[in-house]
Amino acid sequence: xxxxxxxxxxxxxxxxxxxxxxxxxxxxxxxxxxxxxxxxxxxxxxxxxxxxxxxxxxxxxxxxxxxxxxxxxxxxxxxxxxxxxxxxxxxxxxxxxxxxxxxxxxxxxxxxxxxxxxxxxxxxxxxxxxxxxxxxxxxxxxxxxxxxxxxxxxxxxxxxxxxxxxxxxxxxxxxxxxxxxxxxxxxxxxxxxxxxxxxxxxxxxxxxxxxxxxxxxxxxxxxxxxxxxxxxxxxxxxxxxxxxxxxxxxxxxxxxxxxxxxxxxxxxxxxxxxxxxxxxxxxxxxxxxxxxxxxxxxxxxxxxxxxxxxxxxxxxxxxxxxxxxxxxxxxxxxxxxxxxxxxxxxxxxxxxxxxxxxxxxxxxxxxxxxxxxxxxxxxxxxxxxxxxxxxxxxxxxxxxxxxxxxxxxxxxxxxxxxxxxxxxxxxxxxxxxxxxxxxxxxxxxxxxxxxxxxxxxxxxxxxxxxxxxxxxxxxxxxxxxxxxxxxxxxxxxxxxxx
Length: 498
Ligand SMILES: C[S@@+](CC[C@H](N)C(=O)[O-])C[C@H]1O[C@@H](n2cnc3c(N)ncnc32)[C@H](O)[C@@H]1O
Fold this sequence. Notes:
Layout: E1 14-15, H1 22-29, H2 57-71, E2 82-87, E3 90-95, E4 104-109, E5 114-117, H3 127-140, H4 145-152, H5 167-182, H6 186-193, H7 215-236, H8 252-265, E6 267-271, E7 274-279, E8 287-288, E9 294-299, E10 304-309, E11 318-321, H9 332-339, H10 358-364, H11 366-375, H12 377-388, H13 392-405, H14 420-442, H15 448-456, H16 468-496
Parallel strand pairs: 1-6, 8-11
Antiparallel strand pairs: 2-3, 3-11, 4-10, 5-7, 6-7, 9-10
Helix pairs in contact: 2-6, 4-5, 5-8, 7-8, 12-13, 12-16, 13-16, 14-16, 15-16
The chain binds S-adenosylmethionine.
Pfam family, one: SET
Keywords: Methyltransferase, S-adenosyl-L-methionine, Transferase
Organism: Monoraphidium neglectum
């Protein structure tokens, strides 16, 4: 996947195994759906849905269990291992029982996913994706021929550069819109589990964007929204789109919704060199953690998609994966763009210092920068600070700050001359960088402390909580400020050691 692109959850695992024989799998597992559209056993929830969701928390668990009973292979050892619940990260998956490393936590048959080949015009010719679609139709019924042709096509209709290579994205959006509007069987149930709103940048309205306190993010939010609205008009709209005969999206909000669901919930994997993108019911309830206890894989041999324990998982523990797997350079700007939240202490973030020598870092190249950092005086200062106190997110911020500062001070990891003139010059550099940090902090409309208070919420029952999007914006700007403060303390510690 191109690093500018939308998505992706988890690592891009490459499977060298041969694709499953679709015909063989069908014989083993074929079944058709005649399932209820509401969760069996779910009682009328006393509480109402939280902001942005169709179902109340009380209904979540039963709805998930019903869906899982339909998409997990019969008799699979993972059946019933995970539950969907409210968690500290919102709603997520928790383990009903302890699981050892390597244990399957959730297995979903591939024909219960929406699986598209990223590049059907590529060398593999989209063979696995085509077989996956064939299997899907055997189980869920035939798709309208126009949609089937679109999903298999190598269409590059997207109008923006960031999505020019993302035919997979528009094809998945089309398929998701179809199943959630016209699909039967498991799909109405799946739709009930999906959020109705989202906090990714495309959803920010013009009047909300100032909450981001970043001209760069505000511009990105505008571009994102315009791009999806463009896709709506040209492809998905039932009035004007190329696919209008399919009646996929009545209003722009429908396309915005489906686009953010694909962006924030889609997995990527590879089978025999064929890159694939998947929407996987139930597995897409896994939240992100910077220390994940689970990972995922598409197992072509068994024709399934699995969540697997990375380590011992305790009963009741939330099961999380890393969303950074395939794009280990994904900074918080892109996390907010695609996923609608930021990672506290994202090592991929950078302080945008302007007076330094960017050419120097480019010339060094990423591997050499990383190697130099290990011995650099800045890294030593960061390690000292991290050891002195603070949490894991704080240590990651110091690392991100050290990486940001590396091209500008610390002599690129080389020995620093003890000559008085050299030390004096380095001090002046540090002072200039400290000033930049102060200026950047001062350029925000609110202080770090104010943002912390806003996120903590008010004790006054008359003060309404932040809306989800404003909450995401405040968390994003707070994280930016915390990185700047980490850079300040790092520069101060570094200067003291000169
Ligand atoms: C794949 S879904 C996970 C399930 C989701 N929490 C739900 O309720 O449907 C991804 C979305 O979950 C939320 N999310 C996942 N990990 C998160 C985290 N570490 N912190 C905050 N929100 C998170 C974000 O809204 C993200 O776009």
